[in-house]
């Protein structure tokens, strides 16, 4: 598995697995990271790829001192199920 990439030019986080890329579109406003959309390509769906992306993204937000506001339903559900990142959600 590859490392998380913050593709700031495209305003999205990316994570490569098995030759495919999962991504999360975001907006950064001050110290708040809005997660607008999370998606994995069809070949990675059901493998946990989006969850691994979210975990890496949430850890990056924590490391950068950011709060997360999930707009995407998947991001919101993942954060609700992840108590170790509950402090980042607002």
Please name the defining characteristics of this protein:
five-stranded mixed sheet; 2 helices; 5 strands; 26% helix
List the helices and strands and how they pair.
Layout: E1 5-7, E2 12-17, E3 20-29, E4 32-39, H1 49-63, E5 67-70, H2 73-80
Parallel strand pairs: 4-5
Antiparallel strand pairs: 1-2, 2-3, 3-4
Coarse morphology: globular
N-C termini distance: 30 Å
Strand order of the largest sheet: 1-2-3-4-5
**Largest sheet: number of strands, sense, barrel closure:** 5 strands, mixed
How large is the share of residues in beta strands? 25-35%
Mean pLDDT: 96
Describe the structure.
The chain has 90 residues and is an alpha+beta fold. 26% of the residues lie in helices and 34% in strands. The chain has two helices and five strands; from the N terminus they run E-E-E-E-H-E-H. It has helices spanning 49-63, 73-80; strands at residues 5-7, 12-17, 20-29, 32-39, 67-70. Strands 1-2-3-4-5 form a five-stranded mixed beta sheet. The radius of gyration is 12 Å and the shape is globular.
Give a summary of the structure in a few sentences:
This protein is α+β, with helices and mostly antiparallel strands. The chain has helices spanning 49-63, 73-80; strands at 5-7, 12-17, 20-29, 32-39, 67-70.
């Amino acid at each position: 598995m590859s490392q998380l990439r913050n593709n700031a030019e495209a305003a999205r986080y990316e994570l490569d697995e098995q030759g495919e890329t999962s991504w999360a579109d975001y907006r950064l406003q001050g110290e708040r990271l809005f997660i607008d959309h999370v998606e994995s390509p069809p070949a990675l769906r059901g493998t946990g790829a989006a969850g691994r992306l979210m975990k890496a993204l949430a850890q990056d937000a924590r490391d950068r001192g950011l709060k997360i506001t999930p707009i995407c339903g998947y991001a919101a559900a993942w954060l609700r199920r992840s108590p170790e990142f509950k402090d980042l959600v607002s």
